[in-house]
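User: Continuing from earlier, I have the next pair ready.

Assistant: Great, send them over.

User: Here they are, in order.

Assistant: Folding the first of the pair now:
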Amino acid sequence: MSPARVLALSVAAAAAIGAAVLFAPDRTAPPPLDQHVAAFPGLAERLARAATIEVARHDGRTTLRRDGERWTIAERGGYPARPERVRELLVGLAELRLTEPRTANPDLLPRLGVEDPLQPGATGTLLRVLDGSGAPLAELVIGRRRVRTGGNLPETAYVRRPGEPQAWLAEGRIPADHDPNLWLPREIASLPRERFREAVIIRPGAEPFAVRRGPDPDGELSLDPLPEGAEADPDHLASVARAFEALTLTDVRPEAEASGQPAGEGRWTFTDGLVIHVRLRRDGQTLWLLPRAEGGEEASRLDARWRGFAFQIGSWQEETFSPEHATMFRAAPPRDAPGPDPAPPAPPRAE
């Protein structure tokens, strides 16, 4: 065998041995009392005192704060977080099990993603749950996830408690995302188009106009004013009528942080007395929607969530919330237009 071949095999063998030492159970470290010991014994009971959740990496963080029965996102001005996602995180943390010890060598921790997550270039995530006084109820560095190819197998990840050198393989799901947008509920409103009654659109420097539905829930939509000799464009009318049918956001900010120029405003009226006032601001390609609701209990619930916030929506939705009047109609075809000339009679066939 050539010297080069021997050297290549030696390097490969050394790499394999190093990987085996890193990813195999660390038999030199004290094993847990059993093979599925809780990462944080008794945490479920203590979570009733949880007041803050911090999810941090070197390139960003999310801070969730408890406000009564809900959790809010500090980086988004205190906008409510998705409750099911917060619940999933806390339940997953309380149920997390340490299954096998891994390396305790500080030089090898980066290979598992459990080095200090706040240092530049780190790939892990620091999760902290604090009580009302700021004391930690649970702290965990979450590193690389392990892919389980078999069916019905629980998720696993490499973890480490801050301040401890020992890394572990843990079993359980811990959806800790450091991007605040991943904690946002996407829905702004979901009002069926059948509830729409009227929308009054006001664009800067233009006369207001209205889109209205007939008296029935599925009544015909109309445009007011409609120029003489024109007919309303049904697609554009329908777009205005269903503006709040499945309205979602891409981001949210406190109203004071939504910069830009006024891009229109309007008033949408629905059944059951619900009225929604909207204002638009455009900052380059970013479109901000500032809604406000009035008219009963439903409006109070919506306004409690909306007031003081601006919602980023797709820039194309400016045509829905602030369309130009000229785009809402088209020239009507002549009513008595002559049809095509009749075809000349066929010549007689020769006998």
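And the other member of the pair:
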Amino acid sequence: MLAKLSKLGPGLLFAGAAIGVSHLVQSTRAGADFGWGLIWAILLINLFKYPFFQYGPRYAQVTGETLLDGYYKLGKGYLWAYFILNMGTMFTIQSAVTVVTAGIASTLFGITDSIVIWSLIITLICSFLLVSGRYNWLDKLIKVIMIILAITSVAAVTFAFLNNEKPNSFQQIFPDQTGLLFLIAFLGWMPAPLDISIWHSIWTLEKNKTQVKKVSLKESMFDFNVGYITTVVLALCFLGLGALVMYGTPLKFSNQGGVFAAQLIQLYTSTLGEAAYGIIGIAAFTTMLSTTLTTLDASPRAMSRTVQLLFNKKNTDYYLHWMAVLSIGTGCIFLFLLSEMGRLVQIATVLSFITAPLYAFLNYRLVISSEMPKAQQPKKGMRILSVLGILFLTGFTLFYLLSL
């Protein structure tokens, strides 16, 4: 078992990237606004997205290539589509996770209450850490962060449930009107946008570079499942905290990063006690810091590989170039478009949802193509789930577009 745990890495990086805005912010809001009524949404979207996230490390482990290489082989147009979509969302996604991290840092450490200043500081620190430490640093840090987060989150929701005096209703609901837009955004980033499967395929290959003995497909799938199950359990924990502490009360989450961070930390300490304020605050901060780090690492890696393939520059590494572009672009949003952050995040989450069927189709097509040996292709049950998942994602997307 210890040998298996030592080989964990990409799956936990996936969890670190996923357990950010979608969990700390959106899952908690879901519980606060709808009680336990959206459990069905968490379970259903995680079930139907599961195959397509799994195909990232599966394809990389078997072929030794990223999903981006696979998209290129399917057709150059698919890779251009990814490039354009990613250019349209990566700055907003990076800004969104950094702003929440900055809000928590401001609440915990004081110094200044300027979210802009904290966001710029965090971006600079993360950029420095990634340039100096690269994958090895991420791989080691994420294991500590996930253990802290898992323990504190499960403990918090357990105490909240035991101390809850309000009646719990587990009746499931389907939001309408303005609630529908929240549901779409919630599903779009739960547990994460599907293009994170691309990041996972890249991290899988990076992990193999650090191993004396290549990780097997079975070990890679174990790593993925640990990370994926963690994201599902913690999503339910955050929804539960919102439902147990805030649902049915006049308390409403603020749209301002600093105020939201204070409310979020208070949500934990109200169940674990004021003595736990520092521990919970650090756990929330390190969680969002890990998300900020993983997204700042992954997008430049993905864009570097995309440029290499599109322009036949396979021997040139553009990782640092794209990190600089992402950092500067994110900084510009902090300085000039922070007031529009809510709208930008909404656009990014909706784009994540309506493009999910495309990524699902491409990932499935790759793992049943001639690039994959028959023995390593998904079994019948997984193929059926994949088809159902594509139909679900496509149907829900059409339902949303027709309801506009």
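Worth noting for the second one:
The two ends are 50 Å apart (CA to CA). Residues 2-403 form a domain with the Amino acid/polyamine transporter I fold (CATH 1.20.1740.10).
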